[in-house]
């Protein structure tokens, strides 16, 4: 289905799939507990579908994936960073059967990379991700996965254990970028694989990181209750070590609750959302300020970013408007700053302050054009603004729509 509905809003996509299913508006409205009038307004863009919990219920009723209604995955553009081998090459690396069999050793004729080299290459990929250079991340990961597997298969003893930990970190990076470009099924495979290697390494920090990675994979697949439950379960595993936790464990633990807060908000569980945010805020307080341990960008500012994002998911738009625009994110990595910019744009748009919403999204695009191009929400916002225009859209809006490939 990729590309067939890219130029449709989510509401128009609902109508497209409803017709494909041979379903009347009356039947679909009944399945999601809504009126025909509501569904008609959704399909004609007179009501914005702004909450993923509602979109998920429509996807379930239509028997399609959440990504089908969000027009994901999006096509990763070729660029100087990416070259002409993008997600398919990463898919081939993740699904390479040789990595799951004794044949893996036969596939490598050269010496494995040193663990120092491997750590450096993994750090480079994470830095590229946090700079929102998606093409570069996708380009580097296939070879990095092969090298990390080679190291894990070649080394013995303590070096083998360290190599397994690094292999888990590499899969974590793969999950993170795959979620961002909407490759949710592949992200799940990578998360499951990475968690296995992390557990085999016995590295508590990497295990905790991969548990968060699985949470993100569940989130991206619309499994919000499961992601929220995993947050509780994972926290239970880590709790006994928290009293003596260093900055790395505090950061990973706190970020786990941030992911969980998004899951519970999308599940419309306000109480759990607030409890998770409170737990994350306590970890940030103990950490003492914003940091980037284990590439988490964790600290008080990231907690505040999630307070804004969860408020939107729960329908508390005024809270998001009060908190979001004035939040100083300048000390955080570009990826975090741009994602917050999308949330601010969404909040302004929900309050019909379209000019301010457009300005927020343009500022985010200036920071991270690839990230804005590939986020379903930025594309949906721009499409809805285009549809709402009574006359010709402004040059700024029409140019943005062209860059996002939605017109």
From TrEMBL:
Example of a GO MF term: DNA binding
Superkingdom, natural source: Bacteria
SMART domains, per the entry: HTH_XRE
HTH cro/C1-type domain ranges (all copies): 17-69
Gene3D superfamilies: lambda repressor-like DNA-binding domains
Signal peptide boundaries: none
Annotated protein name in UniProt: XRE family transcriptional regulator
Originating organism: Planomonospora sphaerica
């Amino acid at each position: 289905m990729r590309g067939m509905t890219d130029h449709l809003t989510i509401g128009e996509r609902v109508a497209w799939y409803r017709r494909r299913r041979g379903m009347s508006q009356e039947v679909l409205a009944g399945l999601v507990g809504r009126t025909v009038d509501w569904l008609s307004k959704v399909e004609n863009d007179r009501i914005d579908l702004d909450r993923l919990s509602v979109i998920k219920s429509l996807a379930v009723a239509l028997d399609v994936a959440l990504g089908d209604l969000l027009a994901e995955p999006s096509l990763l553009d070729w660029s100087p960073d990416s070259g002409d081998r993008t997600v398919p090459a990463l898919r081939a690396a993740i699904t390479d059967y040789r990595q799951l069999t004794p044949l893996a050793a036969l596939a490598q004729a050269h010496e494995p990379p040193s663990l120092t080299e491997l750590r450096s290459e993994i750090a480079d990929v994470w830095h590229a991700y946090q700079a929102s250079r998606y093409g570069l991340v996708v380009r580097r990961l296939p070879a990095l996965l092969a090298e990390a597997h080679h190291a894990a298969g070649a080394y013995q003893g303590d070096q083998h254990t360290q190599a397994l930990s690094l292999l888990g970190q590499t899969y974590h990076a793969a999950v993170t970028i795959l979620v961002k470009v909407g490759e949710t099924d592949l992200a799940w495979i990578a998360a499951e694989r990475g968690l296995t290697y992390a557990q085999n390494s016995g590295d508590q920090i990497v295990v905790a990181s991969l548990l968060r990675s699985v949470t993100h994979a569940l989130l991206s697949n619309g499994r919000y209750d499961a992601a929220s439950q995993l947050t509780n379960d994972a926290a239970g595993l880590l709790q006994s070590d928290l009293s003596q936790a260093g900055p790395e464990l505090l950061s990973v633990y706190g970020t786990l609750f941030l992911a969980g807060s998004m899951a519970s908000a999308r599940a419309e569980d306000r109480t759990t959302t607030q409890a998770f945010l409170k737990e994350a805020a306590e970890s940030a307080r103990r950490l003492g300020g914003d940091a980037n341990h284990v590439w988490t960008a964790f600290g008080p500012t990231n907690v505040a970013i999630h307070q804004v994002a969860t408020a939107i998911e729960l329908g508390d738009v005024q809270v998001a408007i009060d908190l979001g625009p004035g939040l100083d994110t300048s000390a955080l990595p570009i990826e975090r700053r741009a994602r917050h910019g999308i949330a601010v744009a969404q909040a302004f748009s929900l309050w019909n302050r379209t000019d301010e919403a457009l300005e927020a999204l343009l500022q985010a695009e200036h920071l991270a054009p690839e990230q804005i191009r590939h986020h379903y929400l930025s594309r949906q916002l721009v499409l809805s603004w285009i549809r709402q225009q009574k006359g010709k859209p402004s040059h700024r809006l029409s140019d943005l729509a062209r860059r996002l490939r939605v017109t």
